[in-house]
Amino acid sequence: MRTLNTLLALFLLSNFTQAQTIYKRSLSGVKKVKIETATSVKVIEGPTDELIVQVYANCTECKTLPEEDYRYNLSNIEEQEEIKGLKPFYPGEVDNTGVGLHVEKEGGTLVVKDLKSFFQRKPLLVKLPKDIAVSIDSGIRGSVIIDQRSSELDITTDDGNIILNSTTGPITCVSVSGEINLTLDKVNQESPIAITNWGGKTILNLPPTIKADFYLYSYAKDIFTDFELVSKPLKTKGQNSKFKVVSQSNGGGVNITVYSTSGNIFIKRKSQQNH
Predict the structure, then answer these.
(1) Sign of the alpha-carbon dihedral angle for 92, 94, 95, 101
(2) For the chain, N or C: smaller number of CB within 10 Å?
(3) Are residues 41 and 59 in contact, defined by beta-carbon separation less than 8 angstroms?
């Protein structure tokens, strides 16, 4: 009987959680969405001209805790009765969405602040029109996965990975110890790419015909490629040189900068399998 009651409670909690974890907001007058969170985020193109945020429990690309460590959320079924009639209190900001987020428009930027901790929040799925610029800081553990965007991207993680697929806008990525993996179908010659990775490896899967100027630096590791890159003379010599390799592909073009301290850099033709 106790098992049946537990299963019933889990079912009711699951339905309640699903109903309470979808947030929608108009993007009228918004050119950029800035997300600050402590969990993993996946961004895809949405079906409407609005921001949609929802729980993304089955994110296979996200770095998460083992399922049993979500006890902070799911094992306290008994506490649901005590929570009724109460609302969460968060330091610093007020939940003005009902789903643990504080959302505020600042000029043409919509700022989304996640008020829940990494332990209390499963990954988020964010749906946006593909031409809205996106800035994400995913905190210490969160990863960021973005598919098919033509807008400017500015992504920061700590231990989390950054995975970008089929994006064409200007890209800035910074990670302390996560992997950065970019797979691009085409590159806009007006949209430079700048990557800083302190501890993890960096993988760029690029179209074979890309016209680019590469500025590459790997302090403690190496640079690998199957492109026929043409090296250019360094402007400065020795260990203090900002870039160890300055080179071109297919006659040069858009700037691609990769700065790494202790991770390998892989620059590969897109037809190759991921490393």
Answers:
(1) negative
(2) N
(3) no
